[in-house]
Design goal:
about 180 residues; alpha/beta; 5-stranded parallel β-sheet; two-stranded antiparallel sheet; about 20% strand; elongated
Length: about 180
């Protein structure tokens, strides 16, 4: 029997979900015998594989690059999980939405600097006008709210998914948990 191909993806978020994922500690090592981690910011694979069984997606969609990535990920993933409040609802990255992109860039790069105030035209990704959750771009198979979800929640969800079962996420976590 082949192992489950697992990916974790980090879009616009703080990486707290990935840190909580790693907080499973030795339990993660025990589970790792059941999956191959084929893409993640935790490893050095740079190309998303053509076929992934389960993808855990952290973060909201805030840039043109994020939008391109999430469509590619969905196209090549059987079961997509939105993990954390940013992926599920936009959360902290969406706090910029009432102000608009131009105002945010001006505040960050011209009003709050003392040297060379200018809005960069390279390196900074092209921002979408609004930050939005993952489900507004692609179909999501499961939501794991929490900021971040606990390591125990990740352990239960991953254990159940690897066993071919769908966990009752509502009994494990909530928004802001």
């Amino acid at each position: 029997m082949s192992k489950t191909k697992l990916a974790t993806v980090w879009l616009d978020g703080c990486s707290g979900c990935h840190m909580s994922f790693l907080d499973m500690d030795e339990r993660l090592l025990d589970l790792s015998s059941q999956f191959d981690l084929v893409f993640s910011p935790l490893v050095d694979f740079k190309v998303y594989p053509d076929s992934v069984d389960v993808a855990l997606v952290e973060g909201a969609i805030s840039s043109v690059e994020d939008e391109r990535k999430i469509h590619h990920i969905r196209e090549h993933t059987k079961f997509l999980v939105a993990m954390g409040d940013c992926a599920v609802a936009g959360n902290v990255p969406a706090m910029r939405n009432p102000f608009g992109t131009a105002a945010i860039l001006k505040r960050a790069y011209t009003e709050n600097v003392s040297a060379q105030p200018q809005i960069p035209c390279v390196i900074v990704p092209e921002l979408l006008e609004k930050v939005r959750p993952v489900h507004e771009f692609v179909a999501v198979d499961m939501y794991i709210p929490g900021c971040p979800p606990s390591a125990d929640t990740f352990f239960t969800v991953l254990t159940e998914l690897l066993a071919g079962r769908t966990p009752d996420v509502g009994s494990l976590t909530r928004f802001g948990a």
